[in-house]
Specification:
By secondary structure, the protein is an alpha+beta fold. The protein has 4 helices and 4 strands, in the order αβααβββα.
């Protein structure tokens, strides 16, 4: 697992460096997941959001705040949840500065 996390982080840093080199603004996005799934995977991530922020880019955090009824499974929103996600994402993008 640690080796996989290391590879994922290395790939992310390559993406970040490509964005910087080509003057591309990278915006990270934390997708929503159910509260139960969130507790189950707590501490298992290599924390890509931190890596992105440490390189000077922003991260939009929509991981929490969605009622579990808005999911069709542990990490995929249903139709109603998708509409709510788009609404919240649009608001966050409009208010990035």
């Amino acid at each position: 697992e640690k080796n996989e996390a290391k590879k994922l982080k290395e790939c992310l840093i390559k993406i970040i460096n490509l964005c910087k080199k080509n003057n591309i603004t990278l915006i990270g996005l934390k997708f929503p997941i159910t509260s139960i799934y969130s507790k189950k995977i707590e501490g298992l991530s290599y924390n890509p959001a931190k890596t992105i922020e440490n390189h000077g880019f922003k991260v939009i955090d929509l991981k929490t705040g969605f009622d579990d009824k808005l999911f069709k499974d542990q990490d995929h929103l249903n139709d109603l949840g998708s509409k709510e996600f788009i609404k919240r994402l649009s608001f966050k993008i409009a208010n990035l500065n």
